[in-house]
Write a structure and sequence with these properties.
Number of strands: 0
Number of helices: 5
Shape: elongated
Strand content: under 5%
Length: about 100
């Protein structure tokens, strides 16, 4: 938040979070806005969106490449699955994401 919106967020110890979470949540509402949540809902946590002058098209391409990399490299390294099935998985994820 500090880099993209010039908002300074206080640091809390785990003990404070566990014992004062209601007060912390109320305090957070002072800087949290609907726009911030909408941006998060649309663009998620990936920092790609904030690169290259907030170019939405480039962001979506980088995000798509990250997903494909996870499918074809990370997943294929983790389990024994054919490339054909990975392609089908990519199609299913694309369908769900655009539903």
């Amino acid at each position: 938040m500090l880099l993209t919106r010039n908002i300074k967020i206080a640091k809390y110890s785990l003990d404070d979070i566990l014992n004062k979470h209601i007060e912390i949540a109320k305090e957070s509402m002072s800087w949290f806005s609907k726009k911030i949540f909408q941006d998060y809902a649309e663009f998620g946590q990936f920092g790609y969106y904030y690169e290259k002058n907030n170019n939405e098209i480039e962001y979506k391409m980088k995000l798509e490449n990250s997903i494909k990399k996870s499918i074809y490299e990370d997943l294929s390294d983790s389990i024994d699955i054919s490339t054909n099935n990975l392609s089908k998985l990519e199609d299913i994820i694309y369908f769900i994401a655009n539903a």
